[in-house]
């Protein structure tokens, strides 16, 4: 169909525009961890929801799973779920450190 290519381009432009608008309104955070294998955590918050959670270092399987599971999750709920989870005898964990970071970010935004 002659107009099919144009329709595809318009849909693609709308997707890109939506992504750009979303990035503009997201607040990005970076947190240097303490007591874990992961050295740093970055994430974004938009309308009280977590996005783009990334860990620098740490156990790749666990941190990648956390990132996927928490995408578009209510940030306050994530804090309640993750806060206080230890890793061995460290007294903290990557999940706990993320909860601390998100809690701080939520306080900043309030």
Describe this structure in words.
With 110 residues, the chain is of the alpha+beta class. The protein is built from four helices and three strands, in the order H-E-E-E-H-H-H. It has a three-stranded antiparallel beta sheet. Helix 3 (75-82) packs antiparallel against helix 4. The mean pLDDT is 86.
The neighbouring-strand order within the major sheet is 1-2-3
Instruction: Provide the residue-averaged pLDDT.
Output: 86
Contiguous runs where pLDDT drops below 50 for at least 5 residues: none
Gyration radius, to the nearest Å?
17 Å
> Main β-sheet, in a few words?
3 strands, antiparallel
Principal-axes shape call:
elongated
Give the helices and strands, then pairings.
Blueprint: H1 4-25, E1 27-32, E2 38-46, E3 49-57, H2 60-70, H3 75-82, H4 94-109
Helix pairs in contact: 3-4
List keywords for this structure.
single chain, 110 residues, alpha+beta, 3-stranded antiparallel beta sheet, 4 helices, elongated
Task: Summarize the entry for a quick read.
Helix content is 52%, strand content 22%. It has 110 residues and is an alpha+beta fold. Strand 1 and strand 2 form a beta hairpin.
